[in-house]
Amino acid sequence: MYLKAQGSSGHLSNTLIPHLLYKQAQLITYAAKNTDYDTMQANKKDLSNTKARDNNQQDSMDSSSNRNASSYNRRSFLKDAAILSGAAGLSSVLPFSIQKAFAINADPGTTFMDAEHIILLMQENRSFDHMFGTLQGVRGFNDPRAKRLPSADKVWIQKDKEGKAICPFHIDIEKTKVTWQGGLPHSWDDQSLARNGGKHDHWIIQKTPMTMGHYNRQDVPFYYQLADCFTICDQNFCSSLTGTTPNRLFYWTGNIRPDKSWGSVAAVGNEFAESRDNAYVDWMTFPEVLEDAGVSWRIYQNELWTPHLQPDNKDYWLGNYGDNSIEYVKRHQVKLSAYFRKNGDHTANPALSPSEVHRKYDQLSQKQKNLIDNAFTTNIDDRDEYLKLAPLSYTDDQGKNWTVELPKADIFKKFRADVDQGSLPTVSWLVAPQAFCDHTSSPLYGTWYVSEVLDILTKNPETWKKTILIINYDENDGYFDHIPPFVVPRPGDQDAGKVSEGIDTHSDYHKTDDRPIGLGYRVPMIVASPWSKGGYVNSQLSDHTSVLQFLEHFLTKKTGKAIECPGISSWRRVISSDLTSIFRPYNGEQFPLPAFLNRDQSVIRIRKAKDKPKQLTPSPLTGQQIQLINNNPSFATAVKDMMSSQEKGTRPACALPYQLSVGSKLDKTHKKLQLIFSSYAAIAHTQDESSKKGAPFNMYTGKTFQGELGKTWFYTVSKDSKLTDEIDLTGFVQADNSQASVHLHSDNLEYDLHIDGPNGFYRGLTGSLQDPELDINWLAPDQVQKSTAKNREVVLAFKNREHKALEIVLTDNLYGMGTKTITILASQHKTLHIPLDKQYGWYDFTIRVKGYAPCQRQYAGHIENGESSRTDPFMGMEV
């Protein structure tokens, strides 16, 4: 089935567009027919005074213009978008842009330090689970250690105010118009309140039931295939529990404060920084750090947000959607940029003519000019063509005429020219227009934008051989992610948790609102380069400041200069990766192209989906369904039609630089439980000393502690160190209100603590004051003989302090290793080695002592030995 394409420059009856292109054109036209700019303009500010770009209103794509079309660029976009988006149903087709990037190898013997160009592209508003929760190998919907809520339900079971429960559900981009239904609330208030102090149970209350919706491979095949070929990061968090601008300020400056003191104002909302309202922040940006160090850099976009292009459909296709947050930093003086030098500044009072703007610019130093021109590089040299839209008219298979407007010129013109001419700077940022940024206000055309970036960079293989492309997302919109973000404890509150000495938590806590600023929720990040090929998963914790820390590491070694972003807090430097664990030296390895689904079946599937009704949320779960989900893995047959699950199989996993541990010791006399958190280097890991990191932990209880059900604590331990804390177990004592005078049953108290860390790390501690006198020590690598240190094994040291023998029962929970019983005589020491090679170093087992219920310890996580591994075989349904 075909349709005839026509352009205003002449009848093109001989040009035939395949039916799949027609379906994509229908998608664009639907958006054009079902949007209202007047409504959008009337609702530029949401309840939190955030920008129009973060509203839930759908933006328009006006189709009224009659300008001449540039048929090559516009038809190329339509064709590529049809292939790349799920609307085409071609999840079995590996896009040529990915094929080219995958096929180009680095020179043997090189490492990522041989790169010459770092390209950074941050897209918009998608949580990790929302985009990749079903992807093979990542920590998604098959996570066996998903948090338990205060209700005792798994974190998947989210309830509204009336107690109606919904779990993650598939939103179908082929059969519904979900991609045009707009976004969800994601301001400072509702993002923080959804977290609910770490309990993580107010998602539907603060958002809507649509928060639980997610895509799969059929919906966004391009991104899944990009992950199949390169490296995806499944422990990457946005930086702040809020929206676009604060997170992008972290991305470009390392912070949202002018300094790291608690008293400085934190720009937690978009309204704090908005150039259209003349609201600016002012502190050092990383581009300024690069400028001072003499490192070449540039931020590319078609045009800026600040000029507010008119009519608004121009802004939609041709602006940068306000996603270059350097526009809001005073010292970069956006209103002296090229647009204003050419057109004048009509926002000034009185208005400034072009010559007056030019005079102000001419008075600046060369550094000041560079901070403007490099930050606001646009296609303005393309005369006026770069700000024009042109119509593409076509006739569908029913004989109906349609018109859609697309950019007339190349929105990548300056970037493409710099690549082609060999003048690409060392560090480049790309900022997409709203139509191509993957924001929930637009169809998912960001796939075309990313594909085009790959095409440009791989046109000359010698360029790609020396390039690293980092693609990430600024925040989660309002979409659910099941992993609670790691945050700092309230400064000075000994009951909120603890951090290692030397870590200042003030910068990452909002004093007035009494909330942590971040981390925010997980968001996708994919790193494409010749040194990150192979479909790997990197599970080292990272956030937006990790990109800056990577640049620091890379450029310091390249230039021999100390390059450092002053805004990054000491806490983030401890916990957030510098991304170097993503890369592997290239020594001539050959990586096979990944396998894909059957194309014909996928095409048939979409062709049957002609009507696109609104995406609805599922009916609330019944009590029986909730029980089944709570008692079964997400991939179990018993919950097949209720709970989302992941693709089968494992992936290669990057070696991580640290090994985590949490131990405990009961003090019966003082009724306290001592906790010992530790982070130490993985044996034989080749990472530089400067790249070694500590780790954060979230702790919660399933019981009531000091009158609070599900209380949470937050910890951070520095690298190669230990951190201790004591929990007063009398906090678990429940008052017996049946008596006239309250009696505390302290002799019978039972404690219950759950500790989560990065990459599926977990410790479960339950017991009472009647626990046996038994020490269980997790041996660090330096405590294990060198002959076994590189083995993937758990080594436990037991010491029985009782005056009688103890019978220890160790039960494997997931990996089919069965149960082992050990007898430890009175005062005896015993060491136990548990080999884990068959399950790639993954472990999940529980230790109990016969006769001492409810005492038990659950240990789960992954053993690192400095070498690459595989992702969790239980999540991959391989055990």
From TrEMBL:
One of its GO terms (biological process) is lipid catabolic process. InterPro entries: Alkaline_phosphatase_core_sf (IPR017850), PC-PLC (IPR017767), Phosphoesterase (IPR007312), PLipase_C_C (IPR008475), TAT_signal_bac_arc (IPR019546). Residues 57-70 have a biased composition (Low complexity). Keywords: Hydrolase. Residues 44-56 have a biased composition (Basic and acidic residues). Residues 44-70 are annotated as: Disordered. One of its GO terms (molecular function) is phosphatidylcholine phospholipase C activity. Residues 652-767, 790-862 form the Bacterial phospholipase C C-terminal domain. This is Phospholipase C. It comes from Arachidicoccus rhizosphaerae.
